[in-house]
Each structure stands twice: as structure tokens, then as C-alpha cells.
Amino acid sequence: MKKVKISNGLKNVGKISSGTLLGQLIAIVSLPILTRLYGSEIIGYMTLFTSIATVINSFSDLGLTNAIMIAKNEEKSYQIYKVVSSINFFISIISFFIIPLIYSGEKQYNPFFIGFMVSIIVLTQQQIQISYTWLNKNQKYNILMKNPVINQVSIFVIAVGLYFIGVNKYGYFIGTLVGQLLTLINMKRCLPKSKIVFNLSKYKNVINENKDFVFYQLPTTILTNVKNQLPTFLINNFFGTTILGYYSITQKILNIPINLLANAIGKVFFSNISKMVQNGEKIGEYVFQNLKRATYISIVPITLLISLSNIAIYIIMGYFNDVASQMLQASSIQAIFTFLMASLSGIYIVIKKQNYALKSVIAQMLGYIIGFGLGKFIFNDVVLALYITTIIYSIIQIVYFCFIFKAMNISPMRYLKNVMLCLLLIITLSVILSLVFNQFFEGVIL
Asked: Could you tell me the pTM of the whole model?
């Protein structure tokens, strides 16, 4: 039974990954072009706008989006879907009026433009997630596989086109918004029709039936998203928008294997374990085997990214940038655990251990504040700040997964052996390959 589930899961991962692969190939090709056209500062601003929207979206669904996945029947899922979509719509409108007040002193861009950008991202970002959850539950992978291609093609074509007709200050922003809108349209045409809900009793019913998500998932999601965006805010405030642009570029590079493989694995994994739990099956061994597989998959891309960091930055930016290269190396180890987290998406929800995730998120937030605080006020060095935060983050993630596996009656030692072997291999191979690659490629380029 487990082999059949894994086999079907791999087929579904293949479907999503095929679209993701093409989308990522487009993203890889377009990244150096867009970076050279618009520069790191504009990319930094787009990262800032997206981070603000992501924090707002932490509460724009009251934590109920994932409840769609495990609702008892189709009607319950539909009611949640309508209510969550409506809440997000109202919050996006409110954000349009609030954000300009917060950024009233901004000189580079009009505060109302920032409010417009953030409000549209709030709406499209959350609606995409809601739609993805619905389609994932119903295993509409043929639809989902088109999303990355639609998004990346739209961003590239619109942004490049606008740049060459002189819209070089706003072209990248507009291209990104169009990409999200077209991605959303692709999914919405395959979703049940719904209107904005104004009946308060429907909100009350959905919230009462899903109290655990509101009381536990919502604070966890808020803290998780704040935690994920905290480096963006701290780097922007401590080191400036240009350095934030460098950071954003390194994250785009590191997200290639995560978006290509881990997210696809995680979407199917969440769907499978939800059904297994509903059927009364034990999921411990299935989860461990998926983690083990994800660990092995992560070794090659992460090793290559570390060892080719200088070359990757040269290709993207058009010149060697030591700060950006070192930032990429410092963040790579953290990307391993991000890869594993994405591959086991929703595990803490299914086993009802939201409190583990909550404690982990709080610890990570403190780690970021400590790491970037030391990096700024003691060393005044963004690279050292990233190394400190990476070490803290890695320790927290290792402890977190130990508790997750213990809760499923799987020995934490099995996980520790697996992840330590992975880290040892990646660090060893990276050191060897970086010496070979850097000497060869720098000689060729110079």
C-alpha cells in the first residue's frame, strides 16, 4: 500500500515538476537579464513590497486556507473557500489605505504607489494560495503544472518590453503583478464559482467549525511569515535597499532547487498524508522515507550552488561581486533545511503539532534578531550576520524535526544520522569543487 502511494505520489510530483522545471528554466534565463536591466535596488524594493504583503497575508485568511485540504466533505471545503476568499478581498482593500500612511516619508516611490503594489500582491498572492489548495486537494495537477510557466513568461515579457519602451522605473513591478494575475486566472477558471460573502453568520459558522485553525494555525502562520520576512526587513533597515537587492538575488538562486523540486514534493506529500490520516493509517515511516529521499535530492543542487557561488553571481549580475557571492554561500546551508521543510509541507498540521511549529518559529525569530543584531552593531558585516543566523537556524530545525519524528514514534536518531551525513557530504564536496571550479572559471573569464 505504501509503495503504491509513493509511486502515485512520484507521478504527481512529476506532473507538477514538469511545469515547474520549464518555469524555472525561464526564471534562470530571465534572472540575469532582468537584474542587469533593472539593477539590485529595484529588485530590493520589489522584495520589500512582497515581504510586506506576505506579512499581511499571515492573517488575511484567519489561518483557514489549509482547512480546505482536510474538510470532511466537498460542501464544507466550498464554504471555507468562499469565506477565506472574501476575508482576503476585504483586507487587501484596507491595506491600500493603511500602507501609504506607514510609508509616507518614502522618497524613491510615491506612498500611494507602494500601497497599490502591496494591496494587489496581498490579493493575488493569497488567492493563488487558496486556489492552489483547492486544486491540490482535488488533485488537479494538470492545471497546477501550468502556473510556473504562465508566471515566469509574463514577468519576463512584460518587464523587458516595458523597459525598452522607457518604463524602466516601474516595468519590473508591473511585470511581476501581471504574472500573478494571469496565474490566478489560470486557476480560477477551474474553481467553483463564488461571490463575496456578506452574511456574517457564514463567517461565524466556518470559524466555529475550524477553531483549531483560527486559534493555533493563525498565530503560527503569522509568526512563520513574519519570521520568513524578518531578514528582508532587518537587512533593509540595517544595510540598505541595495544590499537587500543582493540578498534577494541570492535567495532567487537558492530557491531554484526549492521551487523546482521541494515545493512540488511538498504539495503532493501534504495531500497524501492528509488522506492517509483520514483513512486511519500510520504515517511515521512514510514521512521518514520522504524526508530521506528529499535529503538525498538536496545534496547535488545545494553543493553546486555553494561551489559555484562566484560564477553564479557573475552570470546574474555581469560582474564579480564578493559581497553577493559570500551572501550566497552563507545562506546555502540554511537552504538545505528550507528544502526539507518544503518537502514535508503540512506535516505539523496533519499530526496536530502546531505547538511545535509555533515554538520553532519563535526561536527562529529570536535567532534572526540576534544574528543580524550582532552582524550590524558588533561586526557591521552582512555576511557575518548571515553566517550567525544560518548556524542558529540549522540548530533549531534539527531540534524541531527530532520532536516531529518522536511524535510519530520514529527514532530521532534515524533523522540525525541522515541529516548529519547530508551536511558532511555537502560541506566536503563544496570545498573540493569550489577550489576546482573557481580556479578554472575565473581563469577563463579573466
From this structure: 0.80
Q: End-to-end CA distance of the chain: give it in Å, rounded.
A: 57
Contact 122, 88 (CB under 8 A): yes
Sign, CA torsion 410/414/420/423: negative
More confident residue, 441 or 180: 180
User: Is 238 within 8 Å of 380 (Cβ atoms)?
Assistant: no
Phi/psi at 253 (nearest 5 deg)? -65, -45
Per DSSP, helices labelled H in 308-353 are 309-317, 322-343, 347-350
What Rg do the C-alpha atoms of the chain give, in angstroms?
22
CA 41 from centre of chain:
21
Cα separation, 9 vs 4, in Å, equals 8
Give residue 206's domain range.
2-445
pLDDT of residue 10: 56
Half-sphere exposure of 335 (CA within 13 A, CB side): 28
What is the domain count for the chain?
1
Q: Which of 254, 198, 235, 267 is nearest to 24 (CA)?
A: 254
Q: Are 240 and 39 in contact (CB under 8 A)?
A: no
- With beta carbons less than 8 A apart as the criterion, state whether 244 and 47 touch: yes
- Write out pLDDT tens, residues 179-220: 999 999 998 888 888 788 888 888 898 888 888 888 877 887
Q: What is the pLDDT of residues 249-274, one digit of tens each?
A: 999 888 888 877 787 788 778 878 88
Q: Cα dihedral sign for 373, 379, 380, 386?
A: negative
The model's confidence at residue 148, banded by pLDDT at 50, 70 and 90, is confident
Alpha helix (H) residue ranges in 189-282 = 200-209, 211-212, 218-239, 241-257, 263-278
pLDDT higher at 381 or 211 = 381
DSSP 3-state helix, strand, coil percentages of the chain (rounded to 5)?
A: 85, 0, 15
Q: How many C-beta neighbours within 10 Å does residue 22 have?
A: 16
CA 188, CA 180: separation in Å to the nearest integer? 12
Cα separation values, 78 from 84, 188, 415, Å: 10, 14, 38
